[in-house]
Amino acid sequence: MASVLVTGAGGFLGALVAEEFEQQGWRVIRFGRSRRDAVRNPKEFVSASLPDHRLVEVLKGEKPAVCVHCAGPANPRLSLAEPVQDFTDGPQLTTWLMDVLRRHSPHSRVVFPSSAAVYGNPTVMPVSESSAKRPISPYGYHKLESELVLESFHNIFWMTTTALRIFSAYGPGLLRQVVWDSFNKIAAHPIVSVEGTGEESRDFIFGHDVARAVFHVATMREPDAVYNLATGVETSIRGLIEALSAEMRLQRDIRFEGSSIAGVPSNWKADISRLEATGWHPTVPLEEGLRRTIASWRGREG
User: Of 154, 161, 193, 270, which sits 20 to 30 A from 92 (CA to CA)?
Assistant: First the structure.
């Protein structure tokens, strides 16, 4: 049975990736800060914050075919307040992990969930993998630096590495970012105050589609070094909130504050033709994804 190592396995994306590999018949070794998703296989979950010497011990006995590196920061705004910590948990940790793999499991294929934050505010859309990289937050710079770490280990040590530049992931289990924040505001207040103008936009992708893409890339014969991961559909924040309100069956007075948001790009739409050319396609449209996410959150509240 093939095995995969998933770092950050207690988080939103790491848990989904681990579950996807498990459903595909792989043995999954989880490293993470939470046991939330490890109930079925508690012996396969190591509760740890990397770097941790126990990973070296695991790799000495197990040579996973794939490592999906989901551990690391996921908050552009927090990176503005804590740039050193964002760097430590980002490119510094990625370098440590790649060196540990180089020494103990050099044939493991590494998949890194990067971020569209590497593009910053694009001047041309849709954004392709060759578009200019102009990050506007430490988070974006550090994701780009982590990609360069992977590239260096590929070029110097011949390791197989791929980065997926994820645009705006959402779904059950992600209790932060714009979809979650908007859901809470709509549920709690008849007047909803929202940062920005409402014309800011995102390319939303459902979490399970992200996990499918990770598995797809991890098992391809010869993956490229980097792919955009999104749906290729641009949705304004105003449109998102209107869709959420409709799914929640709540009429709200939506008011936009009009101010720009530091460290957060204004508009995104991805060119996903490179990844689609390999046979992967998104399967969950925004309306369905919101419906499933809202149902999950409501169930969580009892």
Answer: 270
